[in-house]
Structure formats: C-alpha cells, structure tokens
Amino acid sequence: MSVISATSQSALYASRLNRVRDEMQRQAIDATLLSVGHDLPYLTGYCAMPLERLTMLVVTHDAPATLIVPRLEAPRVTAHDEVFKIVAWGETENPVEIVAKHLGRAKKIAIGDQMWARFLVELMGFVSGASFARAVDVVGAMRMIKDAAEIAALQAAGAAADRVASQLQRGEIALRGRTEAQVSADISARLIAEGHDAVNFAIVAAGENAASPHHHAGPRVIQNNEILLCDFGGTMNGYCSDITRCVFLGEPSRKIMSAYSVLRAAHSAGVKAGVVGATCESVDAAARAVIDDAGFGDFFIHRTGHGIGMEAHEEPYMVSGNKLPIKAGHAFSVEPGIYLPGKWGMRLEDIVVATEAGPLSMTHVDHSLVILS
Amino acid sequence: MSVISATSQSALYASRLNRVRDEMQRQAIDATLLSVGHDLPYLTGYCAMPLERLTMLVVTHDAPATLIVPRLEAPRVTAHDEVFKIVAWGETENPVEIVAKHLGRAKKIAIGDQMWARFLVELMGFVSGASFARAVDVVGAMRMIKDAAEIAALQAAGAAADRVASQLQRGEIALRGRTEAQVSADISARLIAEGHDAVNFAIVAAGENAASPHHHAGPRVIQNNEILLCDFGGTMNGYCSDITRCVFLGEPSRKIMSAYSVLRAAHSAGVKAGVVGATCESVDAAARAVIDDAGFGDFFIHRTGHGIGMEAHEEPYMVSGNKLPIKAGHAFSVEPGIYLPGKWGMRLEDIVVATEAGPLSMTHVDHSLVILS
C-alpha cells in the first residue's frame, strides 16, 4: 500500500468501477449511489465525511461516474479524471436534487448501506416509482475478495495488533488498580504507536463485565483474581486489525481453566473450518459444536465472526443461515466466546484469510489464557 | 448533568417521548423509527452502536415505545421501564422483520436522519405502501431548544475547549517544526485532559492548507511566517464543544492583518444578530455582509454556522434560505471564514446560545489573531 502512483491507483479504481457496472447490468440495476461508508473509497479513494452535507457518487451505465461533493470539501478530493467527474455543490443548493438530476430515468437504484437514511427519504421525493436495492449486493462480492496488496495490508495491521497483545501478555501494560478506561486508553495509544492510523475500538472488560460482549470500558477498577478480556483493533493504511485475548490476574479456578480450554478448542475448530468452498455458516457451526458439546452452548450468544477489510465489520458474516461459500481472499474473524452473566466472560479472536492453501491467520500471538501472577 | 437519579432521568425521557407523540399526532405520523444518531439517547439515554446489527426504537401511538436491540448489546442498555420496553433479538433473527411487526399498520413513518439506509431499504420490503418522513421534523424542534441543564453542559464543554485554545494562544503548544498531525494529536490529548470524554475533530491547517475549511491534519510541517488555523471540539457529559482560533507564527503581512480585522468584525456581527425572533439566515447575512463589503465575499465559501448540542452539527443551520426564527435555547456556531486558495485561510468561531437577554457565548478566549513570535 506504500508507493503506488496516482496513475496505477486510477487504473485500479477504473477497473473496479467497470466490474461494478458489469454487476449492475447482471442485476438490472440502473444506478448505484454511494456516500458514507467504504464502498466509496474502494472505488474512488475518497472517504465521505459523516456529516449533514451530502457527498454522493452516482454510477450509471451511460455517463461517467460523478462525485457530488460539498464545495468546501472539494479540496479534500484527490482527482482521478479518468475514473470520476467532480461536481461541487454550494451551501444554498439542494444536493439531493443534483443527485436526482444525475440519475436520469433510473428506475432501480442500489443504495450504499451506510448512507444516512435522510438522503434516501429526501431522494424518494424526486424519483417517484423507483425501487431500491442494497449496493452491498453490487459492490460487496468484489470487496469481499481481497487481492494480494489488501492481504498484505491486513497482515501488517494484524502484526501491529499482535505486538500490542504481546505487550499485554508479557505484563508490560499495567492492569491492577487501574480502571478499564485507563487500560483502554493505554492500549489505544499503543495501537497508534505500533503504526495504526486510527483506533476503532479497545474493549477492556474486567471480571463480570467481560460477560457483556460489547462492554464499554468504564470506571471499574481491575482487581486481582479476575479475568480481563481485551478486544481491540484499528485501521492501518486503510485496512483493519481486530484481536481478542484474555489474561487472568492471579490464580484461575479450575472452572475457568476448563472453560478456556473449551474456548480454545472451539476457536481452533472455527479457524480450521474456514476453507475455500465451505459455507460461512459451517465456520460458525464448527466452533459452536465444541462449545455446545461442553455444555456451554447457552453462553455463546453471538455469531462466530464477521468479515473485515477496509471496515472493521463487513461481509461475509460467519453466522448460522449464511450459506455463502468461502472463496480465496475472504477475510474474517473467528471469535467464539463464553459469557456467564454476572460472573465472567471470555473470547478468543484472530483474523483469518481463506487461501487455496488453507486458512491464513493475520495474528499469531499466544492463544492461551496468559496468567499474570 | 452530574447527580441525576435514575427516576428523574426516567421522568425526563417520558416527558420527551410524550412530546414526540404529540408532534407525531399533529403531523399525522403513525410511527417514528430511531437508530444511530442522537435522537435515540435524547429520548432513552441509550446510544446505538454504529454497526451492522440493528438497534431501533419504535414509537407508535397505541403501544409502549420499544427498543429493539441486539441480544449481545442488551447488557449495555440502562432500563427505564416506564419509558420503553426492551426486545432483544438473536443472531439468527431478522431485526427488520421484528421492527415491521411492531409497526402494526403504520402508513406514515418518520425515519431518524442517521439510520443506515440499508435498514430503510430492507424495511420497504415489509411495509408496502408506507410513506416516509424525516424524524428530525418530529424530534428536532424539541432537541433544538436546550434547557438549563443542557446549556450548563454546553458551557462546561465550551470552558474546557477555551482552556485548550488559551494554551495555544499562550504558546504552550509547540508548533514550529511539528506536523499538523502531531499538533492535532496534541490538541486532542489536551481536550481529553481538560475533561472531554471524546474528541470529535481537531483540524490543524497551516498556511495554504488553511484555505481548505475541512482540511485533514496531515504531514505538512508548520513553519515560520504562516497562519495556523485550529478548529477543534469534543463531547463532554454528552454535549459538544467547538471553537476555532487562528494564530500567526512570525510577522503577519498587512493584507493578513486587514483580512483578519474584517473576519473579526464579521464574527461579531454574526453573534450580535443571533437574537430571539431573528431568522437563522439573518445571522448568516449579518456576518456575510461585512465580508462582502470588504471585497472578500467570493472567499467565504460556507454557511456561517450550525446548531450544536448532543451532536457536533445539528439543527438549526445558519444558512441563507433558513427562515426559521431563533428561539431562546437555540445553540449554534458563528464561524465566518475567508479562504484564499493556495495561499491562506482564516476562521473565527464561537458557540452561542440565544437567550431572552441576548446571545450568550459558550467560549470567551481572545478573539484576536494572536501572534507567536
């Protein structure tokens, strides 16, 4: 991701846009609209500000792709003239009306997942009789399959996250007597120091808080004789890391040790199942079977994983019901967990890329429940 | 915002929800759907995670408000049983289908501005024949008028931002020889140190970069004899700060000094115009007239201000065409700017709350172009 010339970037975006148009044709979609979210930078290199001023890429079949952007944000756009036109709108114009004009007589319109709903509500006033689809069905299949440069970026981000996890496991991050929030801030600073451009999250959950999978690191002071769950990741050169490791402060009970060995086996089974040709749900099933068999089934309350790439969560999802076959280049988390409400929780997570040679892990640091005595 | 009991919080949310239902009645809206964004915490205290798992509050006339939330995020919700019911959905359920069931036969549905468009696209498959409106027209007017506790929170956040701006003006933040990105990180850390819970942005733009109003602080090294524009803010106890000050490193030219005196007069005129009963656009007009008269009209390329509260940008907007009359409790930025492409830019910004006694500023630090020699 380092030294790529503007020309080769233009060529990359142009080729991706061509494939989007091919896919639109196959699905009889007349126009694709992309705003906030990562489909836009994937196709143009430009990331829309998540604010009330609309930025929108309009892709149709019979006109150049057009990036409609607030005038005061136009200087932020790196032009790729062969890929898209830029139309800057002024503060007293209605950008939705401008989008509608560029849509021509489009009847079936694909909408970016994370576009603010207000713009779709407003657009409906301009395009009566149109029907809407999700742009993820147009762009997503392409974005899911990472090329060599994207896999290298995921590896670099994973290696940086690994280094922070290793600092945690070696006891280099002070824990006892500090709050979850302090440790979360410390981990965040270390993610940046190790090369991330942004921190996406740094969950630090102590003891009973670890039973809430999306716990917000708070004022709870970390104490002796409890488990600490750390799930953190960021974005580095445009691609995301995501890792979960647990440590135990003091001497874990036999119940904790035995639950952790179940978790580790479930994680390993999930990773092994992530082979080209298997379904996404089979990764979930493989991890879940181990936990079910050990009697913890009721305490594994989320899917086994999510796709990852430019976004921390993206397709494909490793969840029961998702029969999508895994392809080479699919990147996803494998992160089973066991959560005993009011008592403790544990989760173990790596990012895996499916390859023809088998699952390739982006993170490698010690998978055991490291004991910090 | 400090010591409020759960009971009084419940009463506050219940009263706000009642007013939402009254407004829905007036506009013949059958249901309001709120997800990501700040209408939801304003009405329930709960902030949805901006992820692919749907969180949605369904407000109708004939049933209790219902918060539909991913099961693994349910532990994050503070219950207010008299205000809303909680329905947790499991990983293999379709949350949009659950939302649709709670909508009953609703035909006119108001949609939160920042809800991910994918959920509206999916919902359209369940509620054929429904029409959609923007929830900002239901909740926004109420949220715009800040009560005493909210104004106190804005003042506290403003005072914290003031302290960081003062550090900048006193030369306590190293500038020369550092990159914009380094100074941005430094300002961010100081916002947190002064009491903010999160940093929303810290624009640092040197010299010609200051001509891009939404410049992203980058690798550009700050040098002598140039202007430095700093526009930063964060969230503290749920309410936002936002301030812009410029400093000059070295000896400014007469052209810069004279442009800055125009800018300062424009800012002052904008603040003075922000009185109860005046229109929002008149604030913009007052600031713009000063800049126009001085011949810089073409270089003031954005509206004069935006509302602020729980969100960094919210209604009302101080922009030509907005004839909304200012009411006591409206909080908004006044931030005229002058931008000479390729050369330099300058902006001056305070947050102002309209009161019966006149405009009340949330930030007070020196308004001059402080010279750091």
SSE diagram, text form:
Two copies of one chain form a homodimer.
Chain A: H1 6-26, E1 31-34, H2 39-44, E2 56-60, E3 65-70, E4 84-89, H3 95-103, E5 108-111, H4 117-124, E6 131-134, H5 136-144, H6 148-169, H7 180-193, E7 198-206, E8 226-236, E9 239-240, E10 243-249, H8 254-273, H9 280-293, E11 305-307, E12 314-318, E13 331-334, E14 337-340, E15 344-347, E16 350-355, E17 358-361, E18 370-372
Parallel strand pairs in A: 1-5, 3-4, 5-6, 10-18
Antiparallel strand pairs in A: 1-2, 2-3, 7-8, 8-9, 8-10, 11-12, 13-16, 14-15, 16-17
What does this molecule look like?
Chain A is an alpha+beta fold and 373 residues long. Chain A has 2 domains: 6-143, 3-Layer(aba) Sandwich (Creatine Amidinohydrolase, Chain A, domain 1), CATH 3.40.350; 145-372, Creatinase/methionine aminopeptidase superfamily (Creatine Amidinohydrolase). In chain A, 33% of the residues lie in helices and 24% in strands. Chain A has 9 helices and 18 strands. Chain A has a 6-stranded mixed sheet, with helices on both faces. In chain A, a hairpin with a 2-residue loop joins strand 16 and strand 17 (358-361). In chain A, helix 8 (254-273) packs antiparallel against helix 9. Chain A is elongated, with a radius of gyration of 23 Å. The model of chain A has no long low-confidence stretch (mean pLDDT 96). Chains A and B meet through helix 4 and strand 6 of A and helix 4 and strand 6 of B.
Category from helices, strands and their pairing of chain A: alpha+beta
Instruction: Summarize model confidence as the mean pLDDT of chain A.
Output: 96
Overall form of chain A: elongated
User: Helices and strands of chain A, in N-to-C order?
Assistant: HEHEEEHEHEHHHEEEEHHEEEEEEEE
CATH H-level superfamily of the largest domain in chain A: Creatinase/methionine aminopeptidase superfamily
**Whole-number count of domains of chain A:** 2
The main sheet of chain A comes to: 6 strands, mixed
Radius of gyration of chain A: 23 Å
CATH top level of the largest domain in chain A is: Alpha Beta
> How many DSSP E strands of chain A?
18
CATH architecture type of the largest domain in chain A: Alpha-Beta Complex
Which pair has the most extensive contact?
A-B, 44 and 44 residues
What is the subunit arrangement here? Answer: homodimer
Query: Major sheet of chain A: order of its strands?
Result: 4-3-2-1-5-6
* Ends distance of chain A: 41 Å
**Helix segment tally of chain A:** 9
Strand content of chain A: 15-25%
Give helix % range of chain A: 25-40%
The low-pLDDT segments of chain A are none
